Amino acid sequence: MDRIDRKLLNLLQRDASRTNVDMADKVGLSPSSCLRRLQRLRKSGMIDRIVAILNPARAGRGIKALVTVELKLHGEQHMRRFLDIASAEEAVSNAYSVTGETDVVLMLRLTDMEEFDALSDRLFRDNNNVARFFTMIVIRTAKEESAIEL
Fold first, then answer.
1. Class assignment of domain 63-137?
2. Is 69 in contact with 104 (CB distance < 8 Å)?
3. What sign does the CA torsion over 139, 143, 146, 148 have?
4. If I label 129, which of 63, 69, 86, 101 is the partner at 20 to 30 A Cα–Cα?
5. Where are the domains of the chain?
């Protein structure tokens, strides 16, 4: 990956709706050369996927919560089972297995507190191997970035 690839990827991460012609112009390539580079980057797996990032509040999911989860039983099968259950939930936008005192960190995008209560019943209070969980409701977001600067 060279300097031009990095510039293309940075442009694409900021606004994937840019036309190929616009991106080619910004990096000093012909449109056909730019297209070939982008196809190569997709094929190599450098570009995982191209998505639209919605405004959560306008999409009806204006409450963001972070939840740390400690499991009763440890081991790969127990972790995998909980992550599979959590990942199937519509309100779970991110699910991570982590190191440290906690086992799992979830990011939730919720419509309201009633949805959180119902989700808590399904994920944390039922028989899903949860010893304890701690919830933090996000009051203000100082930074939330999906781009990885290259």
1. alpha beta
2. yes
3. negative
4. 63
5. 3-44, 63-137
DSSP code per residue over 56-70: TTTTT--EEEEEEEE
Q: Which CATH architecture has domain 3-44?
A: Orthogonal Bundle (1.10)
CA dihedral over 123, 107, 96, 45, signed as positive or negative: positive
The span from the CA of 81 to the CA of 97, in Å, is 12
Digit-by-digit pLDDT tens for the chain (150 residues) are 999 999 999 999 999 999 999 999 999 999 999 999 999 999 999 999 999 999 999 999 999 999 999 999 999 999 999 999 999 999 999 999 999 999 999 999 999 999 999 999 999 987 789 999 999 999 999 999 999 989
CA 77/CA 118 separation, integer angstroms? 25
